[in-house]
Amino acid sequence: MEERKPLSEQEKVIEINGLYKSFGNYHVLRGVDLELYKRENLVVLGKSGTGKSVLIKIVVGLLTPDSGEVKVLNQHVDQITYKELLALRLKVGFSFQNSALYDSMTVRENLIFPLVRNQRKLTKGEITSAVEEMLDAVGLLHTINQMPSELSGGQRKRIGIARTLILRPEIMLYDEPTAGLDPITCLEINNLINEVQERFHTSSIIITHDLTCAKAVGNRVAMLLDGKFERQGTFEDVFNTNDERVKPFYDYNFIQ
Amino acid sequence: MEIKDEVKTPGKLSRTFITLYDVFQFMGRFFKEGFLPPYEGKELMKQCYDIGYRSLALISLTGFITGIVFTKQSRPSLAEFGATSWLPSLVGIALLRTLAPLLTSLIAAGKVGSSIGAELGSMRVTEQIDAMEVSATNPFKFLVTTRVLASTITIPILTFYTAMVGMLGALLNVSLSEGTSAKAFFQSSLESITFLDITASTIKAVIFGFTIGMVGCYQGYNSSKGTEGVGKAANSAVVIGMFLIFIEEVVSVQFFGLFRT
C-alpha cells in the first residue's frame, strides 16, 4: 500500500491550542495543540479512551472544553452564539462511529432531513437530485428506499458519510470510520475517504486506531499519548521510534 | 494549566436542585422555541397520529369497561335510597370530572410516556440526536416540541372520547338492567353536566398531556449510560409522569372546587 505524502502547508482550517478536557477526576485531554490545513487528511491515532472522539466533538461544539482555544474556519467555537454555531456546523461534517442513522427513516429521508432544514428554498426536484447524487457518490443509490436496519455495517457508514456530504461541508470529521468492518470493507471506506477529499475538496480529521487506514488516507498523522499530541508528522516520522508507548501499536497492526 | 486531582461530586440536595434547574430550563426552552418558526408541522401530525390513534383501542376498552363497572357498582348504593334514576347523572359527572381525564392520562403516561422516553433515550445513546445537532438542525424542535405539543393536543381529545365511550358502557348496563332508553339516559346525564365541568376537564387534560409529553421527553432526551439508560428513561417517564398526574389532579380538584361553591 502506498503511503500518502503530506500536502504543503497552506491555510489552517482548524487550530487548537492548549486544550484541556476532564470528566470528573478523569483528565482526558491535557494541553492538546493541533492544526488542520486546507485539503489535507489528518489522521489522529491513539488507544481507546485517550480522548480522540472527545477532541472532534469539541471541534464541532458537541462538548465544551475546560480550557484552551479551538478555532474552526477562523471562529472560536466556544465563544460564538448558538446561531453562529449552527452556521459553522453547516461547514463541518461529522461521520459518527456507529453511523447514527435515523432508524425510523428510510435512507432517502435520512439524507433529506438535514438538507431541507438548512436549504428551505429547494424544489422537490432539486432535493431528489441532490440525494441521488450523494448516494451515487458513495455507490449506494440502490438502497434509497431501504431502512437503516436493512443495511450492512459498511453500507451504514457510507450512508452516514453521504448524509454528511449532502450539506457540502468544507471540513469532514470521521470518528472511527473502519471500526468493526471486515478488511475489504475497510479498504472501500479508505478509498471513499480519499475520493471525498479529491471530489469535494474537503479537509478531514480521521480518528482511528487502524494503522492500515491511517497509512491509506492520512497526509499527516498525529498520535495522542497521555492526553497530548507528542508525535506528529508523516506515518514514517511517527512510527520511526523506540518509544514504548508507540511501538506496540505498530507491531500489533503490521508485524502480528 | 494545573490539573486538579480531585473534583468534588455534588451532594444529594445539590443534585436535586441541579435537576430542578435542568427541568425548568428544559421547559423554558420548549416555550421559547416551540412557537417560533420554522415549524415541524408534518412531524407534529405524525406524533398526533401516533399518540392519539394508536392509543384508541386501549382507551376504548378501558373507558367502556369503566362505564359498565362504575354503573354496576354504584347501583346498589343508589337503590338503597330509591335513587337509581340519578345513575345517569352520577355516571356523567364522575366520568367527565375525574374518571375520563385521570384514566386517559394514566394510560397515556404508561403507553405514550414510556414510548417517548425509550425512543428519545435510544436516539440519545446511539448518537442520533448528536447527528441532528451536527447537521445544523435543531433536534429539540424536531423531537421535543412536536411530541410535547402532540400529547398536549391529543390527550384532551382522548379524554372526551373516553368519557363518551364510558357513557356508552354505562348506557349498556343501565338499559339492560332497567330498560332505560338511550335518549332518556343521555338527556338525564347531560343535564347535570355544567360548563364548568367541561372547562375544568379540558384544562386538566391539557395539563396532564403537557406533563406526559414533557416528562417523557426530558427523561429520554437527557438519558445516558447506554441501554441501561434507555430502560431507566422509559421507566422514569412512566413513574414520574403518573406521580405528577396524581398531584395535579389533587390540586386541580381543590382549585376548581372553589368555583363550584
CATH topology of one domain in chain A: Rossmann fold
Q: Quote the beta fraction of chain B.
A: under 5%
Assembly type of the chains comes to heterodimer
Q: State the helical fraction of chain B.
A: over 70%
Write down the Rg of chain A: 18 Å
Report on the architecture of this protein.
The complex is a heterodimer of chains A (256) and B (261). Chain A has 256 residues and is an alpha/beta fold. Chain A has a domain at 12-104 and 170-255: Rossmann fold. Chain A is built from 9 helices and 10 strands. Chain A has helices at residues 52-59, 82-89, 107-118, 124-137, 153-165, 183-200, 211-217, 235-239, 247-255; strands at 12-23, 26-37, 41-45, 67-72, 75-76, 92-95, 171-175, 203-208, 220-225, 228-233. In chain A, the strands form 2 sheets. Chain A has a 6-stranded mixed β-sheet with strand order 6-7-8-3-9-10, sandwiched between helices. Chain A has a 4-stranded antiparallel β-sheet with strand order 2-1-4-5, with helices on one face. In chain A, strand 4 and strand 5 form a beta hairpin. In chain A, helix 3 (107-118) packs across helix 4, helix 3 packs parallel to helix 5 (153-165) and helix 5 packs parallel to helix 6. Chain A is globular. The two termini of chain A are 17 Å apart. The model of chain A has no long low-confidence stretch (mean pLDDT 90). Chain B has helices at 12-33, 41-52, 56-80, 87-125, 128-134, 139-178, 182-191, 195-221, 226-260. The longest helix of chain B has 40 residues, at 139-178. In chain B, helix 3 (56-80) runs antiparallel to helix 4. With 261 residues, chain B is an all-alpha fold. The radius of gyration of chain B is 22 Å and the shape is elongated. Chain B has one domain. The mean pLDDT of chain B is 91. Classes of the chains: A alpha/beta (256), B mainly alpha (261). At the A-B interface, strand 1, strand 2, helix 2, strand 6 and helix 3 of A face helix 5 of B.
